[in-house]
Amino acid sequence: MATKHQQILDYIESLAPGAHISVRKIARVLDVSEGTAYRAIKEAQGEGLVTTMERIGTVRIERQEKQQIERLTFAEVVSIVEGTVLGGRDGLHKSLNRFIIGAMQFDDITRYLNAGSLMIVGNREQVQRLSLKSGVAVLITGGFTASPTVERLANEYDLPLISCSYDTYTTAQLINRALYDRLIKKDILYVEDVVQKQSLSTLCENQTVRDYYRVVEQTGHARIPIVDADGKLVGIVTPRDIGEASGDERLASRMTRHPSTVTPKTTIASASHRMVWEGIELMPVVHNRRLIGVLSRQDVIRALQTMSSQPQVGETVEDLTLRNFEEVVLGDGTSAIRGDVTPLMTTSGGTLASGALTTLIQEAARVCLRRMRHVDVIIENLTMYLLKPAAVDSRIEAAAQVLDFGRRYAKVEVVVRDKGDVFAKALLTAQWIER
């Protein structure tokens, strides 16, 4: 039987987008405590089922799929531009497809009006009315308000009518920046993107060691999740747990309880770090304590390879830092990266920032280790010594050399030079990510 917490989540998911939700209402309808209702609503918000809007409350929204993550809801636009909702509150949960700047002649506007868009315009009531009648929400810039007629149309068509104090250019910049951030987030791989959900092999506590060996032979995995009657993860069995146990011994007395797990929203980078650090070949994936899949080390390797081969749509700070650097091989065979210190990489004083320097040092080490083993690595430890600052526009070079390596670990020294003069050194410890 599902717990009260799960019952609340199922109830929220069954509601239509736009439905208002409150702790008291949930507690009354499902006969649960307000504390239980509050915790479940918070979890639903984390899962993207609901959102909280100022002066409106908590509202059920459509869960955004991975391919639609770059789309903003009108409620998020209100928050981004620090706006005020003048009308059409019931449509705030909807997503916008694109935004239009109403700076053209009135006769030319019609061709740009598509339902689901957002018109960014100043105090042009005729454009506001035309947009709402065409299924387009309206964002009024410059701190202007709307006439009663425009507010009535917004409420009639359930299309948000928003006002903000920024000018049109600044407003468009803010929204475009938010969309750009969404593109970056869309490129991030999560466990839910690669998790194995088919042919999930599990065992129960009352099964025996003999059953464990049978599943290991069928799947090739030595770590087998243990679940209860409701499908909730209660433990995991590994060869170390079994030891010299007899074939008839129950798994309940042998399994490891409270094993390391990840959720569907855990990033692949974080999951891979935990798997490498803890030496785990198979990680259970849970949602509300229920086992929904497993993540293998092979899944992580394939995901990381996919990430490296995909074109970058949105650039992160790390991408911008490394954009002007290229891989080179020095005369003595040492691997290095070389490039210019751009203003983006500097402090307010015009010298290379420590964060950018750390990024360069780590990339130089990765380049060196990839040339050596052709596998991905995780930087575990970094000790850096800054001898003197590097100025903006200077051309620098970060050269890496492997000092020692083994089956799982490698030690790398990185020397950073400016016009031949050493200005920073670092010692790193890295771990291989292998199948």
UniProtKB/TrEMBL annotation:
<dbReference type="InterPro" id="IPR036390">
    <property type="entry name" value="WH_DNA-bd_sf"/>
</dbReference>
<dbReference type="InterPro" id="IPR010766">
    <property type="entry name" value="DRTGG"/>
</dbReference>
<keyword id="KW-0129">CBS domain</keyword>
<dbReference type="InterPro" id="IPR028979">
    <property type="entry name" value="Ser_kin/Pase_Hpr-like_N_sf"/>
</dbReference>
<feature type="domain" description="CBS">
    <location>
        <begin position="255"/>
        <end position="312"/>
    </location>
</feature>
<dbReference type="Pfam" id="PF00571">
    <property type="entry name" value="CBS"/>
</dbReference>
<dbReference type="InterPro" id="IPR036388">
    <property type="entry name" value="WH-like_DNA-bd_sf"/>
</dbReference>
<dbReference type="InterPro" id="IPR000644">
    <property type="entry name" value="CBS_dom"/>
</dbReference>
<dbReference type="InterPro" id="IPR029069">
    <property type="entry name" value="HotDog_dom_sf"/>
</dbReference>
<feature type="domain" description="CBS">
    <location>
        <begin position="195"/>
        <end position="253"/>
    </location>
</feature>
<dbReference type="Pfam" id="PF07085">
    <property type="entry name" value="DRTGG"/>
</dbReference>
<dbReference type="InterPro" id="IPR046342">
    <property type="entry name" value="CBS_dom_sf"/>
</dbReference>
<dbReference type="InterPro" id="IPR006683">
    <property type="entry name" value="Thioestr_dom"/>
</dbReference>
<protein>
    <submittedName>
        <fullName>DRTGG domain-containing protein</fullName>
    </submittedName>
</protein>
<dbReference type="InterPro" id="IPR051257">
    <property type="entry name" value="Diverse_CBS-Domain"/>
</dbReference>
<dbReference type="Pfam" id="PF03061">
    <property type="entry name" value="4HBT"/>
</dbReference>
